[in-house]
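From the pipeline queue, job 12 of 40. The input is one protein chain; the requested action is below.

Action: predict structure.
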Amino acid sequence: MSWEMSGKYVANCSCSLICPCPVDSPPTGPNGECRGVGVFHIASGKHDDIDLSGVDFAFCNLFPSNLTAGNWKVGVIVDEGASEEQAGALEGILHGDAGGPFADFAALYGEWLGVERASVTFNDGETPSASVAGRASFTFEPLPGPDGGVTTVKNAMFGFAPEFLIGKGPGHSDLFGLDFDGVYGETADFSFASEMTEGAPKGRA
C-alpha cells in the first residue's frame, strides 16, 4: 500500500497572530483552543492505483492544548465531485491507516469526527481563499516582509510544509460544529507520501 499527493493548501484558525501550534505551544484562541480548517487542492496524487489528482478536501481540527498533548478532534470533508473510491482512499490516508505523516498524527487523535461530502472550493489567486458548502469561507492575507516580501515560518516542529507563508485568515467556519472566527492564516505548497524522505517535516493539521 503506497500513496502520495502534492499541491497547495490554505488554512486558518482561531489563534491570535501568530498561531503557536507549529512550535507545540498552547493555543491562543478562545477558551485556550485552536479551532481551524485547512483546504487542500491535490494537483497530483494517487493511492495505489486510485488517481487523486484534482480532488479538493478540508481537514478540520480542534486542538484543546499544545499539539503533542493529543486529544485532537479531527474531521474531513471531501469535495462532492470526487468519486466514492477517491473519498474512501482519502479517508484511509487522513485517518492514518495508510502510513505516512497522518499515521503519526493518529496517536494524537482523541475523536475522529468522520468524513462528509460537500462542495469544497480552493482559489489560488492573488488573494488565496477557500470555502466549504457555505459553512466555511475564508481568505488569506499575508503579513508583509521587508522590501515588499512576505513573512514565512521555516523548519517548525509541526508544519504542512518545510516553509509556509503566514498572515491573517479572516472568515467563519461551523464545520463539524467547531464554530470559530478566523484570525490567523497560512498557505504553501505541500507534498505528502506514505514514505516521507528522511528529515522531512511532519504535517500539521
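Job complete. The chain has one domain: 3-187.
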